[in-house]
């Protein structure tokens, strides 16, 4: 998504604000009910710019989803410290990933994607490719700093970790909309899953640097 953003700071800020307003309107009114007029009214954006940059409403929706995925990745990049042990890496990523995933906006977007994926397969496929798969790939590249293994195997390890992290919490929040994920639950999940994955990685790759 970031390759579509303007180059100037002011232009980038306006584009990000448009995408955030757009996803909020989609969540509030549903995909079908979220008109470009409503999005423009809330964001102050231009219909001409939206068509030029994103093509149509679906393009705008996909760009907004891509921005949200980028936000989580950028939060991790900003927090990254080269000297971390493998266990510390798991815990730090888990904490940042879950915190980003369980914001009100992110949960609303996730529900909307699941609701639309059957009727609009391209939305589901985009979400899986640019959100789910990319999270595996990005964290696998971090694991390369700790483990000398083929990237395909590290992507599998990253997927195991991420799905273990969010699985129970995600199902609860999707099935019981009145509940929330607390910071304490995020911390507990990050620590517990980091412990489990560090043991598993050391058994799978004994040469792992996992202090």
UniProtKB/TrEMBL annotation:
Keywords: DNA-binding. Residues 12-72 form the HTH tetR-type domain. SUPFAM superfamilies: Homeodomain-like. It comes from the Bacteria. Pfam families: TetR_C_7, TetR_N. GO terms for molecular function: DNA-binding transcription factor activity; transcription cis-regulatory region binding. PROSITE patterns: HTH_TETR_2. Residues 35-54 bind DNA. The keyword DNA repair does not apply. This is HTH tetR-type domain-containing protein. It comes from Sutterella wadsworthensis 2_1_59BFAA. The lineage of its organism: Bacteria, Pseudomonadati, Pseudomonadota, Betaproteobacteria, Burkholderiales.
């Amino acid at each position: 998504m970031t390759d579509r953003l303007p180059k100037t700071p002011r232009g980038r800020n306006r584009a990000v604000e448009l995408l955030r307003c757009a996803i909020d309107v989609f969540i509030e009114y549903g995909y079908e009910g979220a008109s470009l007029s409503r999005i423009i009214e809330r964001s102050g954006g231009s219909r001409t710019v939206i068509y030029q940059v994103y093509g149509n409403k679906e393009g705008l929706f996909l760009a907004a989803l891509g921005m949200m995925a980028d936000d989580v990745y950028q939060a991790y990049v900003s927090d990254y410290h080269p000297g971390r042990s493998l266990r510390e890496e798991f815990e730090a990523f888990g904490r940042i990933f879950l915190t980003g995933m369980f914001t009100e906006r992110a949960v609303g977007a996730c529900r909307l994607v699941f609701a639309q994926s059957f009727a609009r397969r391209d939305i589901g496929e985009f979400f899986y490719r640019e959100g789910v798969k990319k999270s595996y790939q990005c964290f696998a590249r971090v694991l390369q700093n700790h483990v000398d293994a083929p990237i395909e195997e590290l992507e599998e390890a990253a997927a195991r970790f991420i799905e273990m992290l969010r699985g129970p919490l995600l199902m609860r929040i999707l099935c019981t909309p009145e509940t929330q994920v607390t910071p304490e639950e995020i911390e507990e999940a990050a620590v517990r899953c980091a412990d489990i994955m560090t043991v598993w990685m050391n058994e799978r790759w004994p040469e792992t640097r996992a202090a």
